[in-house]
Every structure is written in structure tokens, then in C-alpha cells.
Amino acid sequence: MTASTPRIPLLIDGEFVQSATGHWQEVVNPATQQVLAQVPMATMDEVNAAVAAAKEAFKSWRKTPIGTRARIFLKYQQLIRENMPELAALLSAEQGKTLPDAEGDVFRGLEVVEHAAAIGNLQLGELANNVANGVDTYTLMQPLGVCAGITPFNFPAMIPLWMFPMAIATGNTFLLKPSEQDPMVTMRLVELALEAGIPKGVLNVVHGGKDVVNAICDHPDIQAVSFVGSTPVGTHVYNRASQAGKRVQCMMGAKNHAVVLPDANKEQTLNALAGAAFGAAGQRCMAASTLVLVGEARGWVAELVEKARTLKVGPGNAPGVDVGPVISCAARSRIEGLIASGVEQGARLVLDGRNPQVPGFENGNFIGPTIFAGVTTDMRIYQEEIFGPVLVILEAETLDEAIALVNANPNGNGTAVFTQSGAAARKFQEEIDVGQVGINVPIPVPVPLFSFTGSRASKLGDLGPYGKQVVLFYTQTKTVTARWFDDSTLGHGVNTTISLK
Ligand code: NAD
Questions:
Q1: Residue 493 confidence (pLDDT)
Q2: Residue 209 Cβ contacting ligand 1 at under 6 Å
């Protein structure tokens, strides 16, 4: 770090301001350990100022016509497209993922911005005409007020974009708390949002860790909290913010099983599995981290290992790289510790990616594709989310056995089945107890016409981010029952019953 290391600002009431805190954390390039910036752990006064700005801005923003709100997001999607190469480079440098995958991260967020631009078609109430004599009932979907978002390190573009565009498009104001590990691309996206026309105070940003998150959970002027991150932190946020009376949605950790039947298209399936297990160095909540080979597909391990072995490990910005570094030295040690536990507990390490040679990047947090076969459900490598480029392989005799195995795992983020049989795929889709299912699609993250629908231990709160569900999450449905008196509705006299006449 040098005196010129940039310090990341907060955004409060339309101004990018330097934090007055004494606590700063380094943002580090995981391929080189170069310090890219310093991020502040904001003070409680700063959190309060950001919430106060959002509360004030809500007074006028809630009355802003829906077309005006929509046009800001039309402009915003254009700005994101124009700045895509810069955004991807920034993201790759601080997060580690490859440039094409970094573009994918921005693109999956951009799709939500496009959806937010269609808010006029989404925030629609219902009307029932003549529910009683001269009486109509209709609904309004009104914004809640100040909403907040807390995001993880692994999708520093997509996940903030899951949150503030739809919250703001529905008429709320927003406080974002990005991951302190890679907040730079998030801040660039926030700058572009202001350039697109988001008025002052409507979007605010504070940085920090546990204390700032707790302050968000407790703050009486915040109405709703959207969280994406690990299961222990998400559970804490859900409990604490719910206790404070807020609406809360938490998308959390995972252990996604891909079930492979022997009639699957082998080449396509193995390619899909290698990509979904090792892409983004396995740091995706929807990574296919657990493979269940059924029947004769149990003989496919050696070919999968050969495919994984060919993947190139290196810095995210180098051409041809498939697997970048993991986010931090601490993450690398944790993942290596889990690999060691797998060996100790008797799994077969058929591909060991530890300590790969990456010339010129000896200090990077690299782990190459790693595969365990012969894994059983009692092992730590099966029970814990590894969140690194490690695939664990289990076996099943039949599809029924595979379905029972997946359903016995507490997580419910995603799963996939690979088969050429429509009947088998349909059985899987019907019987599997996981919220997002892929059929020959390894990472079934739905596009924003739908919502992200992780389930069971991977999620708390009933409504998911983006799509139709998030319009309900960020609004209060108000029903209005109305009668306008005219000659036909007069003359009923006093009615002391509950019924509408
Ligand atoms: P994390 O839980 O460590 O951090 C998430 C956020 O919580 C960050 O903003 C962080 O500052 C804050 N935080 C961290 N520790 C805290 C504490 N003790 N108290 C209060 N706040 C705290 O998660 P991460 O490591 O950044 O992200 C990886 C995790 O996120 C994985 O478990 C992954 O599966 C999950 N994830 C889930 C989804 C999904 O949609 N289900 C998507 C992406 C990531």
C-alpha cells in the first residue's frame, strides 16, 4: 500500500464522501496481493446520516411517476453496456474471476436493470368491479420506504444489481452495504446509477462489516432488508432484522447436487459439469459442487478428471484462463484445510489442485480443479460448503436413490439432472426438494422474468430477489374498497351487519 492508495468513499445524500472512521480494510488483488484500495468501516453517525437521507428522499421519490422511474433504468442499462469492459476489468482485478466471467457477472445484473425499466408493467394492482352494490375493490402496490441491501463478495456486480434497481424502481429509497472484500466495481455501478438520473438520497452506500450490518438490522427507519451471503450470517440477519419488525429476505449457502443418469449425453454433460464445478473457482452459490453418478455413469470419473485437468489456472485477466484465484489467503487456507480433511476421512483424491504452478503469480491465492471420488455423506467435504474449485463425487444405484440423497441434504439452492429421458427428468423435477432445478442445465439461475427461488436451508423469507416476487417484497399491498354514492346506491338506511350490500 502507498500513500496514493485510493480510499473508497461512502455515498450519502447524493455526495461521495470520505468516511471519518479510523478503521480501514484493504481491497486486495487475489492474483497478486497488490493493494488496490482501502475501504472504510463506516461509523454509526454515517449509517444514521445515510438512512436519514434515504428517509427524506422517499418523501418525493414515492410520488415520482412510474414512467420517470422507468426511464432512469432505461438510461442505466445503456450506461452499463457502454462501460462493460471497464466494469469487467475492475471486477476481475478485485475479485479474481476471468474477464469473460466478470462480463457475465455484470450481464446477469444488467438483465435485472432491463427488467426494472419495465416496472410500468410489473407494479400493477388488481381490480374487482361491483363486488357489492356500487362497490369496487382494488389494490395499490405501494413502496415501503427505506430498504437496505447487504451483499457477498462472489458477485459484486450482479447481486447489488439484484437489489437496488428493483427497490428503487418500485418507489423505495435504498441503503447498500457492499462486500468489504471487493466493493470497487459496485461503487462504479453506483456512480453510473447516479449518472443515469437517480436523484440524491434515493441511493446511498455505506461500507463496513458486522457492526454496520447490525446497525442496518436494528435501524427503526429501515423497512426491509435483502441479504445475500453465507448461511450463518444470513440466519443472524434474518433473526435480528425480523425481531426489529422488518421484512427480510436472505439468500444463503448451498451444496448443489448434479445427478447424472447413464443415458445422459456424455460429452455435453462432462463439459457442463467441469464448467459449473470449477468456473469462478467454485465461488458461486449455484456452483455444481456435488456430483451424484447413477448406475453405469459411475464409470465416468476418469474422463471428468481429464477434462478438469486441462483447465488453465491463472490470473483472471490473462487470456485463456479458466480458473482464477480464490478471493483471499484466508479462503485459500480454509479450502486447503477442507481438502486435507477429505483425504483424512478416506475420500479418494483423484485430482489434487493444491499449489498449482502459475509462473509470475507465485503469491496468488490459486487452487486448481480438485476432485474427490468415493465421498460419503458423513464427510466434512460433503457436509460443508467448500466454496472453492473442489468437486465431490458420490454414487447411487438408481434415480430414486439419488433423489433421496439430494433431498436428505439440508440445502435447497440448486440442483440439476442430466439425462436424455423426458420421463426421468420429469420425475426428478416433481420429486426433488430443491428450489431451482436444471434439466441438462448445470447452473439453473433463472432470468429476471422469474425470481431466484432457492429453498430450505439456503433461504429465509418467502419472497425471492428480482422478478415478480421482488415486486411484492418491495411493496405493501393496500386494498381499497370504494363506493361512490349516486341514485342507485342511495336509500339503504343504516346497515349494522358486516356484509357489503
Ligand atoms: P458472508 O456471509 O461472509 O458476507 C456477506 C455479507 O455479510 C457481507 O456484506 C459481509 O460484510 C457481511 N458479514 C460478514 N460477516 C458478518 C457478521 N459476522 N455479521 C454481520 N455481517 C457480516 O458471505 P461471503 O463470503 O461474502 O459470500 C459467500 C457466501 O454467500 C456463500 O455461502 C454463498 O453460497 C453465499 N451466496 C449465496 C447466494 C444465493 O443467492 N443463495 C448468492 C451468492 C452468494
A1: 83
A2: yes
152 lines ligand 1 (CB under 6 A): yes
The arithmetic mean of pLDDT across residues 416-436, rounded, is 98
Q: Please enumerate in sequence order all residues whose Cβ is within 8 A of that of 362, keeping only pairs 6 or more positions apart, or say none.
A: none
Establish whether 285 is a catalytic residue. Answer: yes
Separation CA 373–CA 352 (nearest Å): 12
Kindly state the average pLDDT of the residues 474-483: 97
Would you state the CATH architecture of domain 257-439? 3-Layer(aba) Sandwich (3.40)
Of the residues 217, 250, 285, 329, only one is catalytic, namely: 285
Does the beta carbon of 230 sit less than 6 angstroms from any atom of ligand 1? yes
Q: How far is the CA of 151 from the centre of ligand 1 (A)?
A: 7
Does 257-439 match 10-20+28-252+467-480 at the fold level?
A: no
Ligand 1 mutation target, pool 228, 255, 453, most atoms within 8 A of CB: 228
Q: Which residue has the cell 442430466?
A: 418
pLDDT exceeds cutoff 80 at 490 = no
Q: Vertex 106, ends 459 and 452: CA angle to 5°?
A: 25
- Mean pLDDT along residues 168-187: 98
Closest Cα to atom 42 of ligand 1: 285
Q: Distance between CA 251 and CA 26 in Å, rounded? A: 26
User: Residue 95 has which C-alpha cell?
Assistant: 475479485
Q: How far apart are CA 8 and CA 357, in angstroms?
A: 33
What's the half-sphere exposure (Cβ side, CA atoms, 13 Å) at 380? 15
Domain residue limits, the chain: 10-20+28-252+467-480, 257-439
Which protein residue has the closest C-alpha to ligand 1 atom 24?
152
| C-alpha–C-alpha distance, residues 214 and 241, integer Å | 8
Which numbered atom of ligand 1 lies nearest the CA of 178? Answer: 9
The predicted-structure confidence for 247-282, as pLDDT tens digits, reads as follows 999 999 999 999 999 999 999 999 999 999 999 999
Cell of 244: 426489529
For residue 408, the CA-to-ligand 1 centroid distance in Å is: 24
Work out the number of other CB atoms within 10 angstroms of the CB of residue 244. Answer: 15
Q: Where are the alpha helices (DSSP H) in 415-484?
A: 422-431, 467-473
Task: Name the region of 54 (left: φ>0; alpha: ψ -120 to 50; beta: rest).
Answer: alpha
pTM above 0.90, yes or no: yes
All cell numbers assigned to 126: 388488481
- Looking at residue 413, its amino acid is N
Confidence of residue 2 (pLDDT cuts 50, 70, 90): low
Distances (CA, A) of 194 to 8, 115, 227: 16, 18, 23
From the list 443, 454, 448, 457, the residue with the least C-alpha distance to 163 is 448
The topology (CATH level 3) of 10-20+28-252+467-480 is: Aldehyde Dehydrogenase; Chain A, domain 1 (3.40.605)
Task: Confirm or reject: Cβ of 290 under 6 Å from ligand 1.
Answer: no
Beta strand ranges found along 406-445 (DSSP E) = 411-412, 415-418, 437-439
